[in-house]
Amino acid sequence: MSEEMNLSEVLQVRRDKLKKLREEGKDPFKIEKYDRTNFSGDITENFENFEGEHVAVAGRIMAKRAMGKASFIDILDSEGRIQSYVRKDAIGEEAYADFVTYDIGDIIGVKGKVFKTKKDEISIRAEEVQLLSKSLQVLPEKFHGLKDPDLRYRQRYVDLIVNPEVKDAFLKRNKIMKGIREYLDDRGYLEVETPILNTIAGGASAKPFITHHNTLDIDMYMRIANELYLKRLIVGGFDKVYEMGRMFRNEGMSIKHNPEYTAIELYAAYEDYEYMMELTENMVAYVAEKALGTTKVNFQGREIDLAPPWNRLSMQDAVKKYAGVDFDSMETIEEMRAAAKKLGVEVEDHMKKGHIVNAVFEEYAEEHLIEPTFIMHHPVEVSPLAKRNPDNPEITNRFEAFINTWEIANAFSELNDPIDQKQRFMDQLEQREAGDDEAHMMDEDFVNALEVGLPPTAGLGIGVDRLIMILTNSPSIRDVILFPTMKPIK
């Protein structure tokens, strides 16, 4: 209780300081602009060019060491920290009297000359100090910092201030996303934008967020994927398109799942899933080199090499290898259900052969896929938009890419047969009626687009956040999303 009272008293002292400044006509919140000339990184990395030069920097006070008529302060700006030496006789008695009342967290501007202290620390000898914004809250003290994960995610603005490594992860995120765009742009792909609000939730098997459009008086869905719109653009004559942006799925939350997340989907006319495998492994390696300078990443103590070529394994072979079951040798669905139940895999009434194979794969094989691996030839029942394999119509020319046991990409040779596509939508509707609320809805307009004519096409979707997690050694998806979804505090 006393700690709460002490904190309350400290906060009140800060408000009292602000009140006094306002009474003296020195309200910092009336300041609109500060003309800074340089950032901390410029100065510390190029000291030989700045020694003895006048600079103006601005940032947040992170440390303060008073020594009577002089003080040292650490200033944090967008590029790092720099020290400033502030003397009463250099900035004036009245200005120094104001300065000594400034608190950790206050935002200031400092003008002065660059020099090195006796301890060889690059610093600014202040000639003018100006308060630009008063911090009315208390930053976590430096030795303990902001460690509580829940509070870090809720107050990301404080997390970024007191935990510098957090900012580094988001700077790398920016490089990774730029690298993806650069790789695709250089290969003739066109970046496009498609609707986020949809009248049909399609393009993936997932639960959508539902909203209502008042004027049209219809329910609408936040997109779970942008696949069907992008393929319409291929029908319209664009040969290579991609879109990177937010997707929304009303499902569980975990270290790998956030209700809104960043994904990229891309489509190439006259190509197949083999082409997309090569593109995936080469693009990931390219992005790793751009962001990290290497294809070898250390994720939570485990080294993973992202360099091509990646491992390739069919889903059926993966199930044989890791579950010890050959479903292809079984003749009846009852035999398959019994085998799955013996393995401890839950089997629901609506599940057909392909669903069972996929469920066993997820339960027994995924945990072994640490090195980059393409799992190929998914059953047609779990691939309603993928082209059938010409040699075995029960499987599709599809792959998922796994790294660190996580699925990071999904791709296939696109189904372009409108008759087959309509039947698969009908099958999905039956599964919805049987209780599978993640099954696809019917999309008559998409079927119409296929009837107009979709050329042979390959498509790829990548979970960008998961890829960024691996490249930044971040154990939770919340570590790579600036403002992750959090349950409100009551």
Walk me through this protein's architecture.
There is one protein chain. The chain is an alpha+beta fold. The chain has two domains: 138 residues, Nucleic acid-binding proteins (OB fold (Dihydrolipoamide Acetyltransferase, E2P), Beta Barrel); 258 residues, Bira Bifunctional Protein, Domain 2 (BirA Bifunctional Protein, domain 2, 2-Layer Sandwich), CATH 3.30.930.10. Helices cover 35% and strands 26% of the residues. The protein has 16 helices and 20 strands. Strands 6-10-11-20-19-18-15-14 form an eight-stranded mixed beta sheet, sandwiched between helices. The longest helix has 22 residues. The radius of gyration is 29 Å and the shape is elongated.
Short structural summary:
With 490 residues, the chain is of the alpha+beta class.
